[in-house]
Amino acid sequence: MAIGIGRRQFISAIGGAAVAWPLAARAQQPRQMRRIGVLLNLSSDDPQAQKGVAAFLEALQSMGWTDGRNAQIDIRWGSNDLDDQRKYATELVALAPEIILASGTASVTAIQHVTRALPIVFVRVADPVAAGFVDTLARPGRNVTGFMLFEYSLGGKWLELLRQIAPGVARAAVIRDPANPSGLGEFSAIQSVASSFGVELRSVDVRDASEIEGALAAFSRAPNGGVIVASSATSSTRGDLIVKLVERYKLPAVYADRLNGSLISYGPDRINPFRLAAGYVDRILKGERPADLPVQAPTKYELVINLKTAKAIGLTIPSSLLATADEVIE
């Protein structure tokens, strides 16, 4: 005997199924994948760059963005090569990301050669206003914002530290990258206080290894010399050579970047800006505009002193300076 079903029961059953089906279907739909590009101005084997990228990815994950789950993160390493950075900028833009994290002035410039519309969050940029990336630090006004490397006034501190460790210094070679817009600003900041310390400055460009070696060899022939290694990706790339030459010629030196074997380095925390940049990427992905997010300057600077290097060049570091160091390498 056939079993019947009432009209009201039938409609209820169909209605329940109609509600249940879209809910189940939606539950099975993958979450929207957001695409994020990363362009760095350093090589993939650079320890600081590796730590920076790891900090960026970790911070993104803490905000709910996981690579391969709800975010596709494409990373390219420019290795401080302008041609590579232009090539990889083109590759990244072709992947149609919603936003790019760019490390260094050259990386931002390379992306802007390809597009002016894509949101960019930068780190390791010394002067975003002079570079034309933003209108002002407080109100960027464009599609770019981020975290400054440092303020140029830091250059005066480098010279002060050089005189503290070597009071007899009367000449200072400033090693800089002439292709980097920040190189001129750094040199000008040091020059503005040089006369008050009684120090004569000389710029040394870091275009190639032979140029650096020849300039430092010539500089070391006269007495009372010291070295300031300004901040640039090129200085970091050639860091091993610079540290080796400075030690060979027994020159007291202060570095903007912490390099392996560097005597004294004084500069901002290089990893934290990557964490902070993840916060800006998160906010932009959620609808905020780069134009409305202020560019931020570092608030913490670290002094690191290497006593092993000091001993190798026959230098005694004042105890008063050691007491203020964030880290002392024995």
CATH superfamily of the largest domain: Response regulator
Order of helices and strands: HEHEHEHEEHEHEHEHHEEHEHHE
Q: From the 3D coordinates, which CATH architecture of the largest domain would you assign?
A: 3-Layer(aba) Sandwich
Low-confidence stretches: 1-30
Number of helices: 12
Strand segment tally: 12
Q: Tell me the major beta sheet.
A: 7 strands, mixed
Number of domains: 2
Task: Tell me the helix content.
Answer: 40-55%
Share of residues in strands = 15-25%
Whole-angstrom Rg: 26 Å
**Global outline:** elongated
Note the main attributes of this structure.
Rossmann fold; 2 domains; 43% helix; 12 helices; 7-stranded mixed sheet; 330 residues; 5-stranded parallel sheet; alpha/beta
Set out the fold topology.
Elements: H1 7-28, E1 34-40, H2 47-62, E2 71-77, H3 82-94, E3 99-103, H4 105-114, E4 120-125, E5 144-148, H5 154-165, E6 171-176, H6 181-197, E7 200-205, H7 209-219, E8 225-229, H8 233-237, H9 239-248, E9 253-255, E10 264-268, H10 272-285, E11 301-306, H11 307-312, H12 319-324, E12 327-329
Parallel strand pairs: 1-2, 1-3, 3-4, 4-5, 6-7, 6-8, 8-9, 9-10, 11-12
Antiparallel strand pairs: 10-11
Helix pairs in contact: 2-10, 3-4, 5-6, 7-9
